[in-house]
Amino acid sequence: MTEMDYKYTLLNVDSEDCQKRPALFHVDNNNQMNLFAVLEVKRDINRIWGGLPSFRKAKVYSIGLGLTVMSLVMVSYILTGDEKGFLITPSPYQYSTLNSPGLLNSHKTNLSFPFNLSSVRDCTNMKLVIKTITSNIKFSTRQLPDLKDLIKYEQHMFSIVPSTFLPNIKNPCWYEEYTGNVTADPYGTNLYALYSKRFRTVFDYLRNAFREHLYRQGNKYYRFRCLPYFYIIGQPKCGTTDLYDRLRLHPDVRFTTFKEPHWWTRKRFGIIRLSEGFHARYPVEDYLDLFDLAAYQIQDHLQLNSSRSQHKHNIIIGEASASTLWDNNAWVYFYENATAEGEPPFLIQDFIHAVQPNAKFIVMLRDPVERLYSDYLYFGIANKSADDFHEKVFESLQLFESCILEYSMKSCVYNTTLNNAMPVRLQVGLYIVYILDWLTVFDRNQMLVLRLEDHATNRKYTMHKVFDFLSLGPLTEQKEAEITKSPASNTRRQADKNLGPMLPATREILKDFYTPFNAKLAQEFKDDSFLWEKKSKFM
């Protein structure tokens, strides 16, 4: 179960219209919910916690005694719940303040929610929430970290990846001295191989090919290593899988062993799934192993053309983790000294730029309103409906509003606890916030931004833009037709299609929420299609 799978199962309340009033949180009537009761997270990654109280099974020696004990427990449970109230939708993280009356009641004047979360949820309230959020939107530039601070937190990575790469290769590749036993299994401790049973066949092949590709010079052995030439970095539910599948068909393009390693955003920190706890950090060597299949092909080509010193190898390697653009949720557990505004001191792109400043990035975007609904349908497990989505949207908007009243917009976008508390991922659709931060370290010509709507209606147009951006050579008509005319990948499941579209009221409120962010994106790229006022520029 993924993190989003887990979160979407926390609240499955049916709704009939904007006027219905199911409670997100139930609190004492005399106390208004404090912001920190929702946003403060206990930074103990080893604790595993649950939501509602649980009871140990009592050992009973007779059926009568057992029924009596169970009855007493049930009565106690009901009375206690009626008196104190229950947390209906807990975050996957432990909120340390929920059971602390002092913190719950502190700062009532400045840090309380503008609405009690059990109040009437009508369309008027939703409009007010949106108005509050949009009136507090301020785009700001970030202060770039020093290289020495980046090295402090990733000393091992910087000791493995060199500062310069081999010439006449488009990919950043190098020869790394191999100090291990040449007869031992080089992938025996790779965590990707251990946790990904589906790809063990690939690793079996790599084991056999490894020794053949060791380069010996004197008494030392060297292995050929590569990082990706380009990244498909986002966003989820915006067509990244379809783009990945089409690029894989290009004769000069290779990818990692599997589509989404999520190393930069998650595995580097050791996070697999919240439901499984935290695991050992994946070292950079495990990540580099995923490129070995493609690296061996580049190495073979170099050896065949060793006499042609000016020959430029054309094969490029890509990586397609759709979390790379936006997912910085792990920062709160590993980085100290957040900025004065409560923002992360480092972002994913800072580390990528430090090791490969010439990398290229492809971003696939989509109308954020539609993206959010697709995200909900894809990651949700049970009780999905347009009504349920409507309720989750409003709950998320209220949480986001409460944050932006006290903190900077960027701080709220990167707020790990808030992101995990919201039932739907509103923040993922705030494209311009992430892109502006990427443009603080990478040049604009290193980033290609596409729209799913254009890709869906004219794949030949978008694929040619990608080919030009990656400096790929011309294709035969047959190969180009294979790439551009193949069926779309990862489309909506029939069961989700049967649920129908979102409610008109939900669409309207989400459009109001995303409009100022879309306007800033359109202004930044001088392209009104990012306003998403029409489906495609080809229609």
UniProtKB/TrEMBL annotation:
<feature type="transmembrane region" description="Helical">
    <location>
        <begin position="60"/>
        <end position="79"/>
    </location>
</feature>
<keyword id="KW-0808">Transferase</keyword>
<dbReference type="InterPro" id="IPR027417">
    <property type="entry name" value="P-loop_NTPase"/>
</dbReference>
<dbReference type="InterPro" id="IPR000863">
    <property type="entry name" value="Sulfotransferase_dom"/>
</dbReference>
<dbReference type="Pfam" id="PF00685">
    <property type="entry name" value="Sulfotransfer_1"/>
</dbReference>
<keyword id="KW-1133">Transmembrane helix</keyword>
<feature type="domain" description="Sulfotransferase">
    <location>
        <begin position="231"/>
        <end position="498"/>
    </location>
</feature>
<comment type="similarity">
    <text>Belongs to the sulfotransferase 1 family.</text>
</comment>
<dbReference type="InterPro" id="IPR052654">
    <property type="entry name" value="CS_Sulfotransferase"/>
</dbReference>
<keyword id="KW-0472">Membrane</keyword>
<protein>
    <recommendedName>
        <fullName>Sulfotransferase</fullName>
        <ecNumber>2.8.2.-</ecNumber>
    </recommendedName>
</protein>
<keyword id="KW-0812">Transmembrane</keyword>
